[in-house]
Specification:
Length: about 600
């Protein structure tokens, strides 16, 4: 099975850390006007709703009991006006708050995305792309729930609850005191179930992110999945994953429903009790019937507001997990970058001095050890060595994707560590063997290196990479859409597109990592011939498994287990006993005849 089992999330912290919602402040600040307007409508609605209680009291005591029909008419008019006003305010609030929800979540998502774009490459070694995608989609959507609904409902209910209690107090202090005694009983379930709900939400989000990662991987490797007849097993694995997620969700729903039920039950039992006490007061003549009605109105208002708080608390529990995860992504330290710039006319000088490096995921296992190499301007260096000997790792360090643990790398005499990454990446262009292309047209893929390239530059790059024939055969030429990751091209065509892209980048130093290994020998030799012009004006480092390439270089570096075994020309290395001679022996006969054929 290729699946690694679900990682258990660390235990959820005990308290609800509302501080995580601070990530919403900054995006909210950008829309101050709307936030203030939304809060204003909230206050207005709450105020008017509370005033309605007073209206009810007037309606009963002055209208019903005195039997004055004109007062009844007035009361009706006022109540209708109030209702209209409440409806209008609710409309406004709903619009403003939903608008804010969309806007804030959009900018939060952009912020996290931008932050991740600048993360060190090693971060992506540890985090699956699919899981990060889930963070950016499901977690931000959860946050939208808070901004776009829950928060304003919570605030309205808070106002109604406080206002309701104040009005209750003004109407009948004695009955209010009875009611307040009941409040702690409501808080107990709120706190106990709340933590449970949050724990389950976090677990569930973790499962969902894992499922997203699984989908992404399965679909991007669909040929491997189908090729090994794994459809049923993948489906079964999803069933297992979904089962776990479903079980957790059920537990969460159960905890939440119990919470709502308990809070409602306690609140309304309290109201019933208070009604009974109030009834006694009315019979005794201490309280007017209108005042009791108003008191009940306020009590129901305050109780239902408190009741819905429990639901909101559940929402908060659910989203605080998302907020914490987004916050933890945002608070990941960005790559520490250098500040220095390269000279304006770089020549292509590289010095690697005693570099030792281990990948952060395996810090105990150095893959490059005491690597020292100086490259002169215009020199062509071949790096050969067995698979896994650390060749590509050297390129990754030159590109500043990873920093050496010890030793230093200098380009143009300047320490790579102190240089700005942008500068380093303008200086180099790397072509790997996997030719990563984007789902866009061929033209857009080539232009990726330099969006403002002139047609002459583009044509030159296309010609150098021997793409002319490929383009001529495509249905829409350069404007042909090449599919997700370039799947509509052959492996060799993809490599040539990647090569054209690197040529268009016009680097000082070209790094070719088996850049033509998917090409047939004839095309490989043709490409090499045509980019020779390009290479002759700049320094080139080539990782190669084919002798054709190696033979065109000035010097050859032989790597073995992360160390340099030997450096020299082909002739020099052939003199020595070592892995180069074995390498050449395996390659020599067929390759040399091919070179002759092409040239
Ligand atoms: N991102 C990574 N995280 C952890 N270890 C890695 C990573 N990339 C490579 N390695 C390890 O580093 C070692 C050197 O890898 P590298 O890709 O440099 O080899 P290579 O010489 O380019 O091999 P090949 O010829 O197969 O491309 C390997 O043992 C590999 O397992
Ligand atoms: Mg490699």
């Amino acid at each position: 099975m290729r699946h690694h089992r679900l990682k258990k999330a660390p235990p959820a912290p005990k308290q609800l850390r509302l501080a995580a919602f601070s990530i919403l402040f900054e995006p909210l600040k950008q829309h101050k006007g709307r936030v203030i307007a939304a809060i204003l409508t909230l206050f207005l609605t709450a105020f008017v709703v509370l005033a309605a209680g007073w209206g009810i009291r007037q309606f009963i005591d002055e209208g019903l009991i005195t039997g004055d029909r004109r007062r009844l008419d007035w009361a009706l008019l006022i109540l209708t006006g109030t209702t209209l006003f409440i409806a209008f305010c609710s409309y406004l609030r709903s619009y403003l708050v939903s608008w804010l929800g969309e806007a804030v979540i959009g900018s939060l998502r952009r912020k996290v995305f931008e932050h991740l774009l600048h993360m060190d490459v090693s971060f992506f070694d540890e985090n699956r792309p699919g899981e990060l995608t889930a963070r950016l989609t499901t977690d931000t959507n959860l946050m939208q729930l808070i901004v776009g609904a829950s928060f304003s409902v919570a605030m309205r209910n808070f106002l109604l609850m406080i206002g309701g209690i104040v009005m209750m107090f003004l109407t009948s202090p004695k009955l209010t005191l009875y009611t307040l005694v009941l409040i702690p009983f409501i808080l107990i379930p709120l706190l106990t179930f709340g933590n449970k709900i949050r724990h389950y939400s976090k677990e569930n989000q973790r499962c969902l992110a894992h499922i997203s990662g699984f989908f992404e991987e399965t679909f991007s490797h669909i040929k491997t999945v189908q090729g090994y007849g794994h459809e049923a097993r993948e489906a079964q694995y999803l069933r297992e994953l979904s089962k776990e997620s479903f079980q957790i969700t059920v537990k969460r729903i159960l905890a939440r429903s119990t919470l709502v039920c308990l809070v409602m039950l306690l609140a309304f039992c309290g109201v019933n009790f208070v009604l009974w006490c109030g009834g006694q007061d009315v019979i005794d003549g201490v309280l007017s019937p209108g005042a009791l009605s108003a008191f009940l109105f306020y009590a129901v208002l305050a109780a239902s507001s408190a009741g819905s708080f429990s639901e909101l608390y559940g929402d908060l529990q659910r989203t605080v997990g998302a907020a914490e995860r987004l916050l933890s992504l945002l608070s990941l330290p960005k790559r520490v970058d250098g500040t220095r710039a390269l000279p304006s006319n770089p020549r292509g000088i590289i010095a690697i001095h005693n570099v030792t490096f281990a990948y952060p995921t395996h810090p105990q296992k150095p893959v490059v050890e005491n690597f020292t190499l100086s490259v002169a301007p215009g020199e062509k260096i071949a790096i050969v060595g067995l698979s896994g000997s650390g060749k590509s790792t050297i390129f990754s360090m030159l590109m500043k994707f990873y920093a050496p643990q010890s030793g230093s790398i200098f380009i143009e005499g300047l320490n790579l560590k102190e240089l700005k990454s942008d500068e380093v990446r303008r200086y180099f262009a790397m072509v790997g063997h996997d030719a990563p292309l984007f789902s866009a047209t061929l033209y857009e893929n080539i232009l990726y290196a330099q969006p403002d390239a002139t047609p002459a530059e583009i044509n030159y790059a296309i010609h150098c990479a021997r793409l002319d024939d490929v383009i001529a055969k495509l249905p829409h030429g350069l404007k042909t859409y090449i599919g997700t990751k370039g799947t509509r091209l052959s492996a060799g065509q993809k490599q040539r597109v990647a090569l054209a892209r690197a040529i268009l980048h016009n680097p000082t130093v070209l790094l070719l990592d088996e850049a033509t290994n998917a090409l047939d020998a004839e095309n490989e030799a043709l490409v090499q011939k045509s980019i020779y012009d390009f290479m002759s004006t700049r320094t080139t480092l080539v990782i190669a498994h084919s002798l054709t390439t190696v033979l065109q270089c000035d010097r050859i570096v032989v790597m073995h287990d992360g160390k340099i075994e030997a450096v020299g020309t082909h002739a020099e290395l052939m003199e020595q006993e070592g892995s180069y001679r074995r390498f050449a022996k395996h390659q020599l006969q067929p390759q040399v005849s091919k070179i002759k054929r092409v040239s």
